[in-house]
Amino acid sequence: MKIDAREEIFPLNHPFRISRGSRTEAQVVIVTMTDGDHVGRGECVPIKRYKQSVASVLAEIEPIQQIGDLDRHKLQQLLEPGAARNALDCALWDLEAKRSAKRAWDLANISYSHRPAGDLDASHSEPATTNPLDADQVETSFTVSLDTPARMADAAAAARDLPILKLKLCGDDRDVARVEAVRAVAPKARLLIDANESWSPPHYRKTVPALKQLGVELIEQPFPAHTDEILEALDHPVPVCADESCHTTADLPRLKNRFDAINIKLDKTGGLTEALALHQHGRENNFKILIGCMVCTSLSVAPARVLASDADWVDLDGPLLLGRDRDHGLHYQGGRIGMPSRELWG
User: Fold this and answer.
1) Domain 132-337: CATH architecture, name and number where available
2) pTM score, whole prediction
3) Tag placement on the chain: N or C end, fewer CB within 10 Å?
């Protein structure tokens, strides 16, 4: 098997800001695998929060390129969870789908409501759907990045027809004003908020009742991951979701009395293989499920999309933040996202 890995850069539509900083481009690593007859692809996003860079991810992948009989199960033992393993794991899923002439969600025993876009009708040998949104559909949130209340309201107004907005907050004294400004211009939208580890316990106590009144239905990662035990002593009038605190199934026992939901991101789990296990065990432990992504292209989102049909919230808007996406990208319309085509992945 031949494995190639390289960096690719995709400019964003607008600067993307969270509590930890901002960016103007998506830096991704794409892995391509070929056995001579079939090609599989995967993408990952190095995460600075976890001391990852493009260089470090490529360095992790380099020794794996010398392994001739690599498979998904062996990969779990060779690399720790993270971005590098994610790109390799998803490329292996794609390659397995191509070899078997099956879709990845069939290989994963994931059910879906309708035939995915681009599949063939066996009796007519023509596409069973012409519109990707005729396939199994889910609603995805759209992220409004951190800014002043007025500017976040402007961004929300431009997206007011979308069903779910996710607002980035930062723990300062304007957080409630930001949500109030967005609610004023998008009165019908479902609202999620993401603090990216920026809050203190006093800020939580002061802010959460107001967010409840404003109709916020989920608070993502209010506290730094290493201090999240405080959640055991706080009321949860709005469900609280673990993001930076939750990477793999090994984290679940520690989270049970702290969080109501978990955010499954393939760049944290190290690919779809562990994400499937985390999803199953999360449900068994009564966690609600958010399926998320980094700022990325449709190639990163496609494997996560496999899990999205059985999630309580979906936050797979990475490609919508780009100035341009990959060819054969996922189809978004009205806040809904279709299934990936064969040409894209899986």
Assistant:
1) Alpha-Beta Barrel (3.20)
2) 0.92
3) N
